[in-house]
Specification:
A hairpin with a 2-residue loop joins β15 and β16. The chain folds into three domains: about 90 residues, Uridine Diphospho-n-acetylenolpyruvylglucosamine Reductase, domain 2, CATH 3.30.43.10; about 120 residues, Uridine Diphospho-n-acetylenolpyruvylglucosamine Reductase, domain 3; about 90 residues, UDP-N-acetylenolpyruvoylglucosamine reductase, C-terminal domain (Uridine Diphospho-n-acetylenolpyruvylglucosamine Reductase, domain 1, Alpha-Beta Complex). By secondary structure, it is α+β, with helices and mostly antiparallel strands. Helices cover about 30% and strands about 25% of the residues. The strands form six sheets. Strands 6-7-13-11-12 form a five-stranded antiparallel β-sheet. The structure holds flavin-adenine dinucleotide (FAD). Flavin-adenine dinucleotide binds next to β3, α4, β9 and β13. Flavin-adenine dinucleotide (FAD) binds next to β3, α4, β9 and β13.
């Protein structure tokens, strides 16, 4: 038994788990791509106090990973060592105070957008189109249609991987495009976002517009993780990732059931249930093809996690 499993077996024998603890837990369903190995320990956490206690007591060398709704992750077939933490229901609260929305880390983006419509606060409409939860959105600096988290971020509460509570202010955080440097070893438990008074109909119309555009531009009902590659910085290429994919004819590439969606050339469509290796290999092949044909090295937007299993 590993040190991590030992710790959790001992902890659960002596404490009531608020949430859920599972061992050797399949993560395939925790990722929108529908593949991936097991978490050595999966902890669906429903108490902030217990999360802090566990993180403080868990030996430092034990691996910690946090996931949200799994809409931006590829979990490798060898699974994830140590504990995989997912925030549970008690982290889904949403409130408003003056011109701010305060959302728990596990609140779904689209529910946060709906809530802000209900209380006549605008500025968060873009969230209605992003799958995932607010913790994941902050970790990824998620955004669309000119809006992203960095533009409305005021502050957040987090817990570091060793159980220390951290308050994050805007000035502490240097967001980049689809990147938040603090997401490497922090769990975002609550996020405060700036909003502005608007009337409900105008907010609703903006959200409807976003969602109509998304239905037209994005595939539905497929196993995907949204944009596979980040758009390159403008000093590297004026073309967006999807344009580079098309220009280099990469949108016609495929590998054992993995290809790009015909509706959106930067969205992977995973039609196989066998392995995450195939998806990772497909990404590498595409990256190489684009580099060779355009000289641009695209960076993955998808987060790859865990241990690669040897190909058979
Ligand atoms: C169909 C589709 C459309 C998409 N469209 C967009 C889009 O328009 N714009 C866009 O930006 N993205 C888009 N995405 C990608 C994805 O939805 C976002 O990146 C989303 O914010 C990820 O949130 P999540 O909860 O699913 O996080 P996950 O995918 O579970 O995790 C993503 C990263 O966030 C970290 N993380 C998750 N929760 C927390 C937390 N509480 N604290 C700290 N770190 C955390 C994880 O460790 C991981 O590194 C799309 C994805 C899909 C499948």
């Amino acid at each position: 038994m590993s040190e991590s499993v030992n710790f959790f077996k001992y902890y659960e024998a002596n404490n009531k788990i608020e949430g859920r603890l599972a061992y050797n837990y399949s993560l395939a369903k925790s990722s929108w791509l529908g593949v991936g190995g097991n978490a050595e320990i999966f902890y669906l956490c429903n108490s902030k106090k217990q999360l802090i206690e566990i993180l403080k007591k868990l030996p430092k060398e034990c691996n910690r990973t946090v996931i949200g709704q799994g809409s931006n992750i590829l979990i490798r077939d060898g699974g994830i060592k140590g504990v995989v933490i997912k925030l549970g229901k008690i982290f889904q609260n949403i409130n408003n105070l003056d011109n701010t929305i305060i959302a728990g880390g596990a609140a779904l983006d689209k529910i946060v957008a709906k809530f802000s419509e209900k209380v006549s606060l605008g500025g968060l409409e873009f969230l209605s189109g992003i799958p995932g939860n607010i913790g994941g959105a902050l970790a990824m600096n998620a955004g669309c249609y000119d809006g992203d988290i960095s533009k409305i971020f005021i502050c957040a509460n987090g817990i570091d991987y060793y159980g220390n509570e951290i308050k994050i202010r805007k000035e502490d955080l240097k967001f980049e495009y689809r990147y938040n440097p603090l997401a490497l070893n922090l769990i975002f438990t609550e996020v405060t976002l700036l909003a502005e008074h608007d009337d409900q109909l105008s907010i609703k119309n903006k959200m409807d517009k976003i969602n109509i555009e998304r239905v037209l531009a994005q595939p539905k009902g497929i196993k995907t993780s949204g944009s596979t590659f980040k758009n390159p910085a403008s000093n590297i290429s004026k073309m967006k990732a999807w344009e580079l994919i098309q220009r280099t004819d990469s949108h016609h590439m495929s590998l054992d059931g993995v290809s790009f969606s015909t509706k959106h050339s930067n969205f992977i469509e995973n039609k196989q249930n066998k392995s995450a290796n195939i998806i990772e290999d497909f990404c590498n092949l595409v990256q190489k093809n684009i580099l060779e044909k355009s000289g641009v090295e695209l960076e993955l937007e998808i987060k790859i996690m865990g241990i690669r299993k040897k190909d058979k």
